[in-house]
Structures are given as structure tokens and as C-alpha cells.
Amino acid sequence: MDNFRILIVDDEDDFREAVIKRLRARKLDVEGADSGPQALERLSEQDFDVIVLDVKMPGMDGIETLREIKLKKPLVEVIMLTGHASVESGIQGMQLGAFDYVMKPVALDDLMDKLRQARERRAIQMEHGR
Amino acid sequence: MQPNAPASQSQTASPNPWSSLPGYGPALVLLILAIPLGLLVGFFYGAAALILAAFSFITARQVLQQKARAEQQTAQSGELLLQSQKLAAIGELSAGIAHEINNPLAIIRQEAEWLLQLSRKESSPDLEEIKNCLTEIVRQVDRSREITQNLLNFARRRQPVVQAVDLTRLIEDMTLLVEKEALNRHITINKQFQPDLPVIFSDSPLLRQLLLNLLNNAIQAVGQDGTVTIITRVVADKQVMIQINDTGCGISKEHLTRLFDPFFTTKPPGKGTGLGLSICHGIVERLGGGISVASEVGKGSSFTIKLPQALAPQEI
């Protein structure tokens, strides 16, 4: 799986653009979306391997977006972004199929590690032909 | 779940003659006394004694046979009880779901009926009120979806995806998620991780769910001012052990046996669906491990998970 496509979903423009810039500096194929609906729109236009998704967004929040993503493209791995530790959304997110959690502010190395593991998982699952 | 043949069938068919001696006692006594009676008192008395002995014998025999049959039935009903308990658990599951969904449905009905009433009014409808009703309906629908989604997740039998997992880091990450809540409640999280814990091969998101659920439970059990301790260690048989101890309210003996049942909860209605521990149990099984609990009311609880160091990719 050479082309590793990532989608960053967060309503905070500055934060989102900063993450995208840093990931692109590491030679990754990254796109952005500023809301749940926009994320789903992007997802219908092209395939992504991993989606980094903010839990707290106005309108359609992270959990709702996660649900929709898992309905449309169940094999896409989702890493939840949380600004404040929230156990309930953590448990909910994991139960809904999120792969992992990252806390803001994001340590890029940490995010890279998790992206790598998510990508590996996706590769294994696709191999199994599921 | 197939019915099993009743376990204790062996000794009930022909009772040990010596054990039923007391039953035949009167008959024997009469028999023994019949001859001396006949000789001493008269033939008729002897004969009467013999007849009584015979009747007594027949009665005693019938009583003893009844007793044997009753014992057999008890054994059978013991099996049936076990099965009906299992079916009852499933019944409870369905009842649990039905109850949970009935609540939002009832509210939806109320709102809808109110909307109907509003629509029948002569004067122009109050838009604000209509909006409120509809908003509430949408909210209750979301609530129902969550219930069914939880159930779907619970019922989903997905094969675990095996990857190299740094367990220490995984537990640290999940601890970070609960740390703020713990701090707010003045609960200390004590980490006693084996320093060189090897990388294990397992399904990481499942492990995360498992740990989040258990950590959350531990914190809820403590409530305020207490300690949650997490211990990791390599144990015999190529396994790793994760133990989560809390100084919380503890679990009573009757609750312990039902602890991992779906929908079993000690929380008041509306708070928590009781799926947490049953999900944990399901996850641990899927990961090829085991979970056990020890608890003392008033002192705290200890949940011990044992997992294979390497989950073979084919295992379910």
C-alpha cells in the first residue's frame, strides 16, 4: 500500500492546517475537512486509509461522524482527536470502532506512530479480503 | 444449547435394600410377631398380623418407589433449572433492550401526540413549540439508535486483527484518557508496570476498549478519594497479566456470579446500560484470554486479565 491517504477532520482551521503541513513535510498524502458533513463528502469523492477525527465539532460531532464513516466505509481506520480527556466519548468511540485516541496538543511523533499502526491494521484487514 | 441427560440417574432405579429398611420396618415387625402372636393369642390374631404385614409391605414399597421417582425428577429439574437460567439470561437481555428502547419511544409518542393536538387547533400554530417537539423527537431517536448500536457492537463477532502491541504504552494512553476524571475525584492512579514487558501480538483497539471499560468501572466504583492500581506482569505459559485493583465499594457475592451478564448493572435506571463488563468478557475471550474478579464489599475489587503473548491470527 504505497499511497497512504490521510484525512484530517477538525473545525479549528489553524490547528488543522498546522497538522496537515507537518504531515505533508513527512511526505504523506494529506487532505483536510472542517466538519463532519464535509468529511463524509470528501470520503465519497476519494478513498482514505486513515481519518483523524476531532471529537468536539459544532453541528455533527465526532461520534456522529464516526458512526457515519463506519457505515459508509467500515474498513477506514479512525483516530479520534480529543481536546479534553472525555471518558464517555472515549468508550463510545472505541465501541463504535475507532482505532485509537490522540490528545491535543498533538505530539507529532505520537501521531505518526498511531498512523503507522492504523495503516498496518488496514493493510492486514484488506489482505484478509474483508 | 442442547439438553443434557440428567446427571444423577444411576442410583434411583433400584434403591439399596438396606437403606429402605426403615420403610419396611413395620412390615417386618408384624411378620416377626405374627407367629408368636398366633401361637400365644390365637390363630386369627396371627393371621391378622400377617395380613397387616402384607399391606404394610405393599404400602412401604409404593412410598419408596415414589421417593425414588421424586429424587430422579429433582435431578432432572436441576438440569432444566440450569437451562432455564440460561434462557432467562437471554430473556433478560431481550427485556433489557425492550425496556431501554421503550423509554425514548414513550417520549416520542408524547411529543407526537402533542404535535397532533397543536395541528388540530383553530389558531395559527406556535412555531417555537413545534420546533421543541420535533427537536425532542430527534433527540430520542438518536438515543434509540445508540442503544441498538451498542447492541450491534456487542453482538458483532469480528475476528481480531493481530498486530504487535506495546501494552505498556497502550495502558498509559488509556490512563491518560481517564486521568482528568480521576483527578477531579481525587482518585490516585497507581501504575505498577513490569519494566521490560515484551511486545505482545493482539488486537489493539479491542485492548483499548477493554482497558477503558475496566478503568472507568474502577473509577466509578471508588467514587471519590481512593486508589486505582494497574499492574502488568509476564506470567507462566507465555501469558501477560493485567490487573486493575480499586479501593471502591466492592461487589457482593450474589452480584459476582452475574457480573459479566449482558445488561446486568447495579447503577440506577438511566445510568449505564450494563453492557460494559459483558463486552469486556467477550473481548477477553476473543483475544484468547481469561478474566477473573475478586472482591470484598467495602474494601474494593480486583480484576485480573490474562492474555496470550501471541494471539495466532487464525484464532477467534
Descriptive notes:
The complex is a heterodimer of chains A (130) and B (316). By secondary structure, chain A is of the alpha/beta class. Helices cover 48% and strands 19% of the residues of chain A. In chain A, strands 2-1-3-4-5 form a five-stranded parallel sheet, with helices on both faces. In chain A, helix 2 (36-45) packs parallel to helix 3. The longest helix of chain A is centred in the C-terminal third of the chain and has 20 residues, at 108-127. The model of chain A has no long low-confidence stretch (mean pLDDT 88). With 316 residues, chain B is of the alpha+beta class. Chain B has two domains: 1-156, no CATH class; 163-308, Histidine kinase-like ATPase, C-terminal domain (Heat Shock Protein 90, 2-Layer Sandwich), CATH 3.30.565.10. Helices cover 57% and strands 15% of the residues of chain B. Chain B has helices at residues 21-40, 43-120, 127-155, 167-184, 204-222, 253-258, 276-286, and strands at 163-165, 187-193, 200-202, 226-235, 239-246, 290-296, 300-308. The longest helix of chain B has 78 residues, at 43-120. Chain B is flat and about 105 Å long. The chains are: A alpha/beta (130), B alpha+beta (316). Chain A binds chain B through residues 67, 82, 84-87, 90-91, 94-101, 103, 117, 120-121, 124-125, 128, and chain B through 149-150, 153, 159, 161-163, 173-174, 176-181, 204-205, 208-209, 212-213, 216, 219, 276, 279.
